[in-house]
């Protein structure tokens, strides 16, 4: 009995490491928003300190079911007020380190959920891709 498809029909995160991710095999070192509906957007920040309420308002405009926030190498939380646009839409937000966020995005997207992964890739944390 088969429980899982051989391939996903949406974009997946196919690799990650310190300071980089690969989406469908394409490596990037810039903070990125990946959606299960095929969008990939530059998130316009290179450190946790760069984040503003506008970064999260952009996520709300995508009207996801859930947002996975990858906060870099460590788990960090943004001020709750910044999440207000998402909360008004009853969008769930989960904060975790970026590598855990990559794994979680793939699981939720594979289940057919409308998920957005906002992945902080911090400058100076780059490592090589295996």
From TrEMBL:
It comes from the Bacteria. InterPro entries: MTH938-like_sf, NDUFAF3/AAMDC. Pfam families: DUF498. PANTHER family: NADH DEHYDROGENASE [UBIQUINONE] 1 ALPHA SUBCOMPLEX ASSEMBLY FACTOR 3, NUCLEAR PROTEIN E3-3. This is Xcc1710-like domain-containing protein. It comes from Pulveribacter suum.
